[in-house]
Each structure stands twice: as C-alpha cells, then as structure tokens.
Amino acid sequence: MARDRRKPTTRLTHLGRDPKRFAGAVNPPVFHASTILSPDLAGYQAGGQRRFEKGATVYGRFGTPTQHALQDALTDLEGGADTLLFPSGLAAITTALMTVLASGDHVLVADSAYRPTRSLCDGLLRRFGVETTYFDPTLDGDALMGLIRPETKAILLESPGSMTFEVQDVPALAAAAKSKGLAVLMDNTWATPLFFRPLEHGVDLSIQAATKYIVGHADAMLGAVTANDEWASALRKTTFELGMAAAPDDAYLGMRGLRTLDVRLRRHWQNALELAAWLQARDEVASVLYPPLEQHPQHGLWKRDFDGASGLFGVVLSHPYSDAAVASMCDGYELFGIGASWGGFESLVIAGRPHRTATAWKAAAPVLRFHAGLEDAGDLIADLEAGFQRLNAATDE
Ligand SMILES: *Cc1c(COP(=O)(O)O)cnc(C)c1O
To answer: Could you tell me which residues carry N6-(pyridoxal phosphate)lysine (predicted)?
Structure first.
C-alpha cells in the first residue's frame, strides 16, 4: 500500500504484505539467498545497475523480498523516499553519517547523543578527517547558527537524548541547519516513527535502532535509515559501498515486531507514566526525566511534536548515594533486569553518570535509567519500593 491517509495503527497491520505473491501466506516469508540467478547473461549484466532500484532482487546483499517488505513498511511510516536496513542501530548511524560527510568536513552532534555515536565521531570519523563539535541539546535555532562554519556539512539530532532525555526543538534546529545547506540527521529510536516522524519536521535522514522497539522482543539486532528524496540515492550508494546488509531472519523479526508496535508502545507508555508519577513522589528521587511529565523542562516541545511516549526514562536520585548502596538497590530487583538495550517486552534498569563535553551535568547523584516493560505496573512499583528499602538500609549502615 502506497502512502495512504489511514491511521498508522491500521497501516502497521497491512504494510509490507502481499499474500498473493507468496502462495496466500499472510506474512512475507524468510528468503535466504546469496546468489540470485538471472534468466540470461544480458539480465545478469543489467543487474549491477538494478541494485539501485527499490525491490530489485539482484544479489543477497541487496536484499530479498523479506528485507524489501520491511523497507517498504518503514518508508511508509516515516514518510520518506527509501529505507535501507543495517545489521545494528550503530551501523545505521555510521552509514548515515558517512553518506553526508567527507574528509575535511565538520559535523554538529547533540551533547546528549548515544555514547557509541560519540565514539564513532571521536574515533573513526576523526581518523578520516571529519571534525565534530558537540552542542547543548537545548540550544535554539539562533544559537545553533553561531556554531555553523563554512565546512559544517551536517547535524545529528537525538531527541530525547540518551540517559538525560532533553527534548530538542527539531523543527527550529532543522530549519536553521537547512538555511546553511546542512544535511539533518536524527536518531529517532526513542519515539519510533509511530510517535515522531522526523522527516515531517525538516530532517533528511531518520535513523532507527530497530533492535529496540521495532524488533521489540530483545532477540535481534537491526538498524534502519529512512531518507527523503534528496538523500535516498546517496544513502543507497553508501550502504552498498560499505557492504551493509541485514540478515533475512532479523528483518523478518523486525517486520513481525512492527505489527504489534502500536499496542506494545501504548502499554510501555502507560506503565512508564505510572512508574514516573510514583517515583516523583519519593524522597529518594530528585527528578524524573520523562518528557510526558509536566515538570519536564521541555514538556511543551514533546506535547507539540510527539504523538506519544515510549517506556524509557531517567531518574536522578536526591542524595549522592554511594555506589554500593545503588548497587544493592539494583542487584536485588526481581523484575528489572540489569542490562543495556531496551525496547523489549521486559523491564530493565542501569545506573551511571551522563557523559558531557559541551555542557555540564550538574547533579552529583547517580542517574538511573529505567525501561518500563509490559508487566503489571503495580508489581513493578512493588519491586521499586523494595529497592528503595535496600538503598536506605545500605545508606544507614
Ligand atoms: C541502542 C541504541 C542505538 C544502537 O543500536 P544497536 O542496534 O544496539 O547498535 C542507537 N541509538 C540509540 C538511541 C540507542 O538507544
């Protein structure tokens, strides 16, 4: 189905499906292929060019109907021209940046960006002659203009930011960047295209760590980049030059996850709201970093631009609790697993200190990051309450 005006939840159910093509099967099957045979030599010789056509099966690396189905579905949801798939979210970020940058260029990156994005900028990109400036994620368009140099070619947004959840004024930052000819990239993993569509707000390349909510079951690694008309063919070319490809089984799991994205996200959102409200009232908590809360500094931007919220939020503790006390709280949780990644059906927690270079993170106390899973919210709150008892017991000793 080409872009239609039906609601995203209806489109999630039908996108990327073509039962008539697959013996009536409701879901596009998993095609494992490297070699794709051509009917004749002329067809083979034309294949090199056909890899730039959407949906062409030319060679396994360029995708089979399994990957193409997910690409089509994400292109529709994001409102873009084309989507490419990657073996991880980080590979998607890497390829998007390498699509728009060359040696000698300068890139602006939000100071609250996902930590491995920073490692990429400070490592490989620097080695290839690209300089990065990190900027305060709460900057407005005018202030951003002051950071743009003649050699600045791109800006990478991430909203809300990793660990600290600042919401960016995406339309204002994108407009300022576009006025100077920059390519605008955004990591949209937190909201997914269901709750925020970057391209509608002036972004050129929207990036998803599909590993998180799109796969949704903590069992596959997958990335995606959706480009507008301006960048679609450059993205396809860079992806193929780098040899990036997502495995058919993982693309299938991404497609399967997409079907239930709407119901899952709404439950994650509702559970996160309940946990956040309860946590906010606790003495052990200084603030909860969750954009749907009215107390969140950029709540207004979230309300203006987003259609919903996911289940990931931060908590700043109210005292500089010792690492041992925080560990005793986290280690004893029965429902919150300790682990990176998120977006699966289960609840998670990690603790750390946000990494900043352009701005200062002032709170001395540790920051916890919770993922509200699909469990019963009351059961999750009971687990949190027992955790605070451990935290206080370890602090009073
Ligand atoms: C996890 C994550 C990524 C990277 O995704 P992987 O699939 O783990 O490589 C990128 N951006 C954000 C915001 C993430 O949380």
So the answer is: 212
The residue annotated as part of the active site, out of 6, 61, 303, 353, is 61
DSSP string, 320-341: ---HHHHHHHHHT-SSSEE-S-
* Domain of residue 308, CATH code: 3.90.1150.10
91 contacts: CB under 8 Å, gap ≥ 6: 223, 244
Provide residues with CB under 6 Å of ligand 1.
Answer: 88-90, 114, 158, 162, 187, 189, 209, 211-212, 221, 223, 341
C-alpha to C-alpha distance for 218 and 225, rounded to whole angstroms: 20
CA of 115 to the centre of ligand 1 (A): 9
Which domain-ending residue is among 259, 285, 304? 259
Q: What is the pLDDT along the chain (397 residues), one digit of tens a residue?
A: 445 679 999 999 999 999 999 999 999 999 999 999 999 999 898 877 888 888 889 999 999 999 999 999 999 999 999 999 999 999 999 999 999 999 999 999 999 999 999 999 999 999 999 999 999 999 999 999 999 999 999 999 999 999 999 999 999 999 999 999 999 999 999 999 999 999 999 999 999 999 999 999 999 999 999 999 999 999 999 999 999 999 999 999 999 999 999 999 999 999 999 999 999 999 999 999 999 999 999 999 999 999 999 999 999 999 999 999 999 999 999 999 999 999 999 999 999 888 889 988 888 888 999 999 999 999 999 999 999 999 999 998 7
Q: Are residues 151 and 29 in the same domain?
A: yes
Looking at the structure, do residues 159 and 177 belong to the same domain, yes or no? yes
First to last CA, the chain: 63
CATH number at residue 34: 3.40.640.10
Angle between helices 65-78 and 248-259 (to 10 degrees): 40
Please report whether residue 337 resides in a domain: yes
Domain count for the chain, please give it. 2
- Choosing from 187, 250, 305, 383, the catalytic residue is 187
Angle at Cα 332 formed by Cα 331 and Cα 335, nearest 5°? 100
2 domain residue, yes or no: no
Give residue 89 CA to ligand 1 midpoint distance, Å: 5
Q: Which range of residues forms the domain containing residue 331?
A: 261-396
Residue 13 lies in a domain: yes
Hunting for tokens 């300089």 — which residue is that?
Answer: 131
Are 203 and 276 in a shared domain? no
Asked which of 239, 259, 279 is the last residue of a domain, the reply is 259
Strand, coil or helix: 173? helix
